[in-house]
C-alpha cells in the first residue's frame, strides 16, 4: 500500500521543530501552529496493518460494558481511543468510530487494515441494522466465541502436530545417519531382505533432494489450485461442497461453525425487526463457502417466488429433519425469531459436541499411526539384524 509522507516544519516556543506525517494523518490531525513549511517526502510502501482478533474482542467487551452503563457510543469510542497505546489500533478504532457516527461504509474504512473478513462482515451488518449500541454486545459475544473456537481447535491440534514434527525429524535422522550403515551391512551379505526393509531403503533413496523437489512442487500446486479456485466458480462450488461434508470430522466442524454463525446473525436481524427474507439475504454475506452461499440463495429465490419457508428450506437439501421441523413449526405459529434462536443453539451444541469428540479421538489416532510407523522401522531393521545374528552363531 502506497502512502504519501510529508515533513512539517514549525516553530514552538522559539524552537524549530519537525514532524513527519502521512497524507491520512495530514487530513485528519490538527496541525501545529506557526507552520514554516510542509514538504512532500514522496511515496512510501507500507504493509497492511494487521489487527488481531483477540484485541478486537477485548475492545468490544470494554465497549459493551461502557454502553451498558448508559455511556453514548461516540463517548465510549473516545474513551477507548484515549486509553489505547498502540497507534495503529488507535487509528483503527478512530476509523470504526467515524464509520458508525458519520454513516461511512465500514468496509471502505477497513481496506487499509488486515482484518478477519468475518469481523468486517459482522461490523457491516451491525452498521446496517441501525441499532448499533444494542448490537455491539452481540458482536462482542460472537467474536469471543469465535476466538474460543479457534483456541480450542489449536489446543486440540497442538499435541498431534508436535508428535508428527518430532517423528519427521526422527525419520530424517534415521535416513541420513542410521540407514546408510545398515544398508552397507545388508548388501555385504547374502541375506534376503524383507519387503519392509526394501521399502525403507527405497524411501531413503528418494529422500533428500527429491523430497525437497516434491515439497516445492506440492507448494506450487497448492498456489495454482487456490488461484484457480478463486477465479473459477464451478471449482469453488465443488471444493466448498467437499469442505462441508459430514464425511470427515474437520469438514463437519467447519459446516457446523458456519451455520451456527449464520443463524446467530439471522436471529439478531430478526430481533431488529427485519423481515425473514431480508434477514437471510443480509446474513449470507458471512458465508465464505460458495456451496452454502448458493444454497441460501436458492432458499431466498424460492421465498421470492411465493413458496413457503418450510418448502424452501426442505428443497435446499441442506438441513436435517429436526431443523426442518422447527422451521415448519415457526412458520405455522408465526414465531420464526424464536425458532431461529433455537436452531442457532442446536448448531452450537452440535459443534461443541463434535469438537469434544474430535479432541478425544485425535490423540489416539495419531498415536496409532506413529506406533505403526515405529513398528515398521523395527521390522525393517532390527528383525533382519536379529536373524543375521542367529545365522552367525551357527
From TrEMBL:
The chain crosses the membrane at residues 156-179, 211-229, 357-386. Residues 62-180, 267-384 form the Type II secretion system protein GspF domain. InterPro entries: GspF/PilC, T2SS_GspF_dom, T2SS_GspF_sf. Keywords: Cell membrane, Membrane, Transmembrane, Transmembrane helix. Coiled coil: none annotated. It is a multi-pass membrane protein. It is found in: Cell membrane. It comes from the Bacteria. GO terms for cellular component: plasma membrane. Belongs to the GSP F family. This is Transformation system protein. It comes from Halarcobacter ebronensis.
Amino acid at each position: 500500500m502506497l502512502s504519501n509522507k510529508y515533513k512539517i516544519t514549525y516553530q514552538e516556543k522559539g524552537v524549530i521543530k519537525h514532524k513527519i506525517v502521512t497524507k491520512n494523518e495530514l487530513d485528519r490531525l490538527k496541525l501545529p501552529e506557526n507552520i514554516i513549511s510542509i514538504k512532500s517526502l514522496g511515496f512510501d510502501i507500507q504493509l497492511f496493518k494487521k489487527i488481531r482478533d483477540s484485541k478486537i474482542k477485548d475492545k468490544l467487551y470494554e465497549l459493551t460494558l461502557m454502553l451498558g452503563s448508559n455511556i453514548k457510543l461516540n463517548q465510549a469510542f473516545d474513551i477507548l481511543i484515549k486509553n489505547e497505546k498502540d497507534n495503529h489500533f488507535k487509528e483503527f478504532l478512530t476509523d470504526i468510530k467515524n464509520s458508525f457516527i458519520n454513516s461511512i461504509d465500514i468496509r471502505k474504512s477497513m481496506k487499509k487494515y488486515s482484518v478477519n473478513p468475518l469481523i468486517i462482515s459482522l461490523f457491516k451488518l451491525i452498521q446496517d441494522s441501525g441499532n448499533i449500541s444494542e448490537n455491539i454486545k452481540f458482536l462482542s459475544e460472537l467474536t469471543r466465541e469465535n476466538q474460543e473456537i479457534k483456541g480450542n481447535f489449536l489446543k486440540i491440534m497442538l499435541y498431534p502436530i508436535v508428535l508428527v514434527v518430532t517423528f519427521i525429524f526422527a525419520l530424517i535422522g534415521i535416513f541420513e545417519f542410521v540407514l546408510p550403515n545398515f544398508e552397507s551391512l545388508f548388501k555385504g551379505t547374502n541375506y534376503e531382505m524383507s519387503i519392509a526393509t526394501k521399502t525403507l531403503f527405497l524411501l531413503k533413496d528418494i529422500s533428500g533432494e527429491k523430497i525437497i523437489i516434491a515439497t516445492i512442487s506440492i507448494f506450487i500446486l497448492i498456489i495454482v489450485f487456490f488461484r484457480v479456485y478463486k477465479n473459477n466458480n464451478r471449482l469453488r462450488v465443488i471444493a466448498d461442497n467437499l469442505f462441508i461434508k459430514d464425511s470427515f470430522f474437520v469438514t463437519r466442524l467447519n459446516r457446523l461453525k458456519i451455520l451456527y454463525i449464520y443463524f446467530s446473525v439471522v436471529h439478531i436481524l430478526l430481533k431488529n425487526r427485519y423481515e425473514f427474507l431480508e434477514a437471510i439475504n443480509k446474513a449470507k454475506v458471512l458465508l465464505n463457502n460458495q456451496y452454502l452461499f448458493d444454497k441460501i440463495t436458492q432458499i431466498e429465490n424460492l421465498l421470492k417466488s411465493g413458496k413457503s419457508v418450510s418448502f424452501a428450506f426442505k428443497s435446499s437439501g441442506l438441513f436435517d429433519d429436526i431443523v426442518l421441523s422447527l422451521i415448519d413449526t415457526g412458520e405455522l405459529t408465526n414465531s420464526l425469531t424464536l425458532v431461529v434462536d433455537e436452531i442457532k443453539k442446536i448448531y452450537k451444541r452440535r459443534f461443541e459436541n463434535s469438537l469434544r469428540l474430535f479432541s478425544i479421538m485425535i490423540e489416539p489416532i495419531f498415536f496409532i499411526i506413529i506406533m505403526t510407523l515405529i513398528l515398521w522401522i523395527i521390522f525393517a531393521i532390527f528383525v533382519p539384524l536379529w536373524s543375521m545374528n542367529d545365522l552367525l552363531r551357527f
